[in-house]
């Protein structure tokens, strides 16, 4: 494949604001009497292949792996494309397969978030008929735990100033809520607040797991306030 054609594909990726060149790799290999260029999205099954025959640098066959349950491979068969047509196919693959893969990989699993939060808060041990308010001592211990969580979030997620301000405001609201809400109502606010923090920080599933392990860590140092 000619360098000018490779460079054009390079520029297509570079112009796309949602894609990073660091996440792509390119390789060349012999294929029959011609050659094949493979552009891969790293750490995924997604690939776009370009085949040229031995008699022309300007006629192309192509194939690509789709973002689908089985990562189906599509081939052009006997269709021969010029380079302009090939660029269109490549852009379509980036926009409809690679981007969808990226979005799905980074999407927060709210069901899993909810499960992790309830586990961290030991909500299975709550008496859902208990409408008692927190005692002053319990309020103080919740405040200390969530203040510690603010610092752990800053240290573990390298938040910027705006993100950290968002975290502090939301956790301060949760601290304040413990002074006026009963335990059942506070539990609902706590779940909503912690999920909103995860979303605001754009945490992936692995980072979400870390957030809830930090929450569990700070709460494990306290008496089981929520199991009364």
Notes on the structure:
The chain is α+β, with helices and mostly antiparallel strands and 228 residues long. The protein has 2 domains: 3-106; 110-227. Helix content is 53%, strand content 13%. It has 7 helices and 5 strands. The protein has helices at 3-15, 83-106, 110-120, 136-157, 161-177, 183-200, 205-220; strands at residues 24-31, 34-41, 47-52, 61-65, 73-75. Strands 1-2-3-4-5 form a 5-stranded antiparallel β-sheet, with helices on one face. A hairpin with a 7-residue loop joins strand 4 (61-65) and strand 5 (73-75). Helix 1 runs parallel beside helix 2 (83-106). The longest helix has 24 residues, at 83-106. The protein is elongated and about 85 Å long. The chain starts with a helix and ends in an 8-residue tail after the last helix. The model is unreliable at 123-128 and 224-228 (pLDDT under 50).
- What is the element string, with H for helices and E for strands? HEEEEEHHHHHH
Helicity level? 40-55%
Q: What is the total tally of β strands?
A: 5
Radius of gyration: 26 Å
Q: Can you tell me the number of structural domains?
A: 2
Supply the number of helical segments. 7
- Main sheet specs: 5 strands, antiparallel
The CA-CA distance between the termini, in Å, is: 70 Å
Strand arrangement, largest sheet? 1-2-3-4-5
- Poorly predicted runs are 123-128, 224-228
The coarse silhouette is: elongated
Which structural class is indicated by helix and strand composition?
alpha+beta
Strand content: 5-15%
Arithmetic mean of pLDDT: 85
